[in-house]
Amino acid sequence: MTRIGLEVHIQLRTQTKLFCGCPNRFVKDPNTLVCPQCIGLPGSKPRVNRSALQYAWLIGLALNCKIPSMSFFSRKSYFYPDMGKNFQITQYEAPVAHTGRLKLGLKEITIKRIQVEEDPARIVHVGGTIATADYVQVDYNRSGVPLCEIVTDPDFESPREARDFLQKLSSILEYLNVYDPSVEGSMRVDANISLGPTRVEIKNITGFKDVEKALNYEIIRQKHALRRNQKIVRETRGWDADAGVTRSQRTKEDEEDYGYITDSDLTIFTITEEKIKELKNHLPELPDAKVKRYVKELKIKEDLAVSIVSEPDLAEAFEKVIKYVNKELAAKWFAGEIKKTLNYHNLRLRDSKLKTDGIIKLLDMIEKRTITDHTAEMMLREMTIKSLDPEARSDVTTRIYDEHTIENSIKEVIDTNTKAVLDYKSGKNESFNFLVGQVMKKTQGRGDPETIRRLMKKLI
Ligand SMILES: [Zn+2]
Questions:
Q1: Ligand 1 centre and the CA of 116: distance in Å?
Q2: Nearest-5° angle of CA 212, CA 217, CA 218?
């Protein structure tokens, strides 16, 4: 049986780093946002950024975790140029949250623990990959950025489930406003997978699709090996996204190998019951609750609701729009064409030119049947990438009902498509649809489909 567990690292969007006052943001110039603390100079002392802890507690509450009244940091020792002080400050014995769950379809995924730790520096392999680079550069700007690590039990039975979980988790984190999914590498995943008794870990995968691909590759690799009676080695592998393969990096070390010790520079920190209650009250309405409300109160189909709430921006815009236009129509367009168009341009709603006012006008024109669905789709595509008032170009967008105009187009189509006309007459209904399509084309998609059908039947 395939068993998969995930360790998800999220870069928290705090103003400053976890243990110093350096800004937490990405800049091109390397080693410009650093201080003695985050490059690990001896004698520098860490100070905890409380807002990073607050974010982690919020995540814990959103994932139905238990929040212990106290937690503390430990030092995880290792030697590598990405961590100047040769240990990473992380949590081991006392994480901020544990034992939570997230609903995934009919299943519940157990969240084992949630901990806060510092991100290491960024290693840049110059002139190639880890295997072929001439040399490496170290950019300490990332060193000390607050990470929240979310660890699940090995509850996933397929790579697809793991991907669905990540998508849902990402959406929840976006609602909490604790991370920015548009920042490259703001979510990095380690996945462990076992087909039999031996667990293999795939490190540092970015992107939901790549997690699914890496796991699928690993299943095939392990099945092949087992079929040839080869032993699966307990090891850590890396995902090469370009080649689409995982490669062995090192045999897996045990947690004990890191020699965890409590960080004596940092005190134990506590959280009171009242504070937990207060944070709970501040949780926004999360995707599952939103879906329930949309279905129950707004009478929107569940699959459409799920699609709309996947992005907070989209849900917010939808809720504004339905104050002015028909709810079902809006749901259909938000879950359908609007999402499709944004995906096509790889844009999020807030980064596109599409504004609620424009959407309201457009949907209103569809509802009043002044434009066809086809024209609306074309306009939506334009409105996504440039400012455009949907009402401004009515001369070329208005739906055509005029029978004389439509009849002329039909006559032209009949004259040039004799075969289709004969086919229709001999009983082929698809030919009729083909002919209607041709008339639609002649009217640039603006002809009223019902009028076209009615007149076509009359004229043939
Ligand atoms: Zn610093």
A1: 17
A2: 100
pTM recorded for the entire structure: 0.86
pLDDT above 70: residue 253: no
Helix, strand, coil shares of the chain as percentages rounded to 5? 40, 20, 40
Provide the strand spans (E) within 153-243. Answer: 187-194, 200-206, 235-240
Q: Average per-residue pLDDT in the chain?
A: 92
Residue 29 is inside which H or E element, if any? none
Alpha-helical segments (H) within 298-428? 302-309, 312-321, 327-333, 339-344, 356-367, 373-385, 394-397, 403-416, 418-425
Confidence of residue 293 (pLDDT cuts 50, 70, 90): very high
Domain ranges of the chain: 3-276, 285-397, 403-459
**What is the tens place of the pLDDT at every residue in 79-112?**
888 999 999 999 999 999 999 999 998 999 999 9
Confidence check: pLDDT of 12 > 90: yes
The CATH fold assigned to 403-459 is Arc Repressor Mutant, subunit A (1.10.10)
How would you list the strands of the sheet with 87-90, edge to edge? 87-90, 74-77, 261-262
Q: How far is the CA of 36 from the centre of ligand 1 (A)?
A: 6
Q: Are 129 and 123 within 8 A, CB to CB?
A: no
**Cα 28 to middle of ligand 1, angstroms:** 17
Ligand 1 centroid–CA 188 distance in Å is 22
In contact, 111 and 152? CB cutoff 8 Å: yes
